[in-house]
Amino acid sequence: VPARTLRTKGMVVGSLAGVPYETGSCEVPPGSRLFIFSDGAYEITKKDGGMLQFEEFLSHLTDATHSNHDLDHTISFARNLSGRPNFEDDVSIIKVEFHDH
To answer: In tens digits, what is the pLDDT along the chain, a chain of 101 residues?
Structure first.
């Protein structure tokens, strides 16, 4: 099953009271993985000065050879690209796996 992105534009969730947020839904088949992450997870300056592109980050998350990787693998991927132990921006990432049970 190909990757599907669910993106919304707007303020950071919870930053201001009373701000409306865009909502959406989709079917999630068993065996799927859902990654929820902040922009700091992929807006990374690489060692060569270029920026990691969202599509490159998505490719890393959906790479079949890493299908069972934990999030430490993704954090290491980002740190290796930047060559720094710390991130420039705040980073939040959650992985949810959907099983048949």
So the answer is: 678 887 777 777 677 888 887 777 888 888 888 888 888 888 999 999 999 999 999 888 888 666 666 788 888 888 898 988 888 888 888 988 898 87
Calculate the alpha carbon distances from 93 to 24, 44, 47, 49, 55 in Å. 19, 14, 22, 24, 16
Give the torsion sign (CA, 95, 97, 98, 101): negative
Dist CA 64 CA 33 (whole Å): 12
**Residue where the block lists tokens 């999630």:** 28
Helix (H) or strand (E) holding 36: strand 33-37
Helix pair angle (54-62, 71-82), 10° resolution:
140
